[in-house]
Amino acid sequence: MEEAGATLVKHYRDLAFMGFVEVARNLRTIFRNIAFCKRDILEFQPDVLVLIDYPGFNLRIARWAKEQGIRVVYYISPQLWAWHASRAHAIRRDVDKLLVILPFEQEFFRKYGIEAEFVGHPLLDEINAEAEEPARPETRSELSNQIALLPGSRKQEVSRILPRMLEITEAFPDYQFVVAGATSLPKAYYQTFLSGYPKVSLVQGQTYEILRNSKAALIKSGTSTLETALLDVPQVVCYTGNWLSYRIARQLIQVKYISLVNLIMDRPLVRELIQNDLNKEHLTTALSEILQPEKAAAMRAGYAELRKLLGGGGASERAAKAILKEAGIR
Questions:
Q1: pLDDT tens track for 83-99
Q2: Does 1 map to a domain?
Q3: CA distance 159 to 131
């Protein structure tokens, strides 16, 4: 958004905390940031307030903004279909326009009396902007025997997930492993984990290029699983977190899968290794499977179905038009 000309007042890195325990530890900072945002919104006096994702923070802002008489558009809706479905009532009360990016979300919100608008997924536009089409499987095999490791973009994710990914690299001596590092983390932080693995390289800020040239990938659960699918790369989804946060989440989350790929497809197209299942034995087996041509081909066939479900490109343009309409701007 900053590159597109928006004025950045505060970076999302200062606002984002993952997990129940982590949120509890940082409550004072969170409330201080909420107060800061309220002051900034009042000073700016927007025609319409656009909230993007991050429900724990943004739903508080939505309620306050509605009380101030500010029109609210929520883009990339909270994943209430996974948990906290009761928050749908708050959205109906506090949000004037809800824009969703997953095809099944329209029907979910309709059950709560909310007419959400499906605009498509912005990742389709982002990936299409990078290249005309994903590198073909046969091209990948000619380029290298590269396997991508995407352990997340936050320190707490990397510290828990990357060591488990690295453990299996020695079991695949014929492959080159590359960690797709986030630019938000210093190189030195990654090196603390990579020091014992001289054959594993680190490249920051080139995730799509790394994926395009990889035969397979180990991916931390999140949006990156969908990116990997749209880039046509066979993958294993990985996640482990704070044990207390995980136990609480198990009691609250209402979905069968954690990866967006499986959620959209409504079937286990990609293997998910969660918490204790994310270990050396299971990860070695799962990666070995997707390196087999038959398994890789079946996964890519599923990816083709996924693209059809997500619709065509133009999500960002459709979202922008909906926002401008809500603001009364032609």
A1: 767 789 999 999 999 99
A2: no
A3: 32
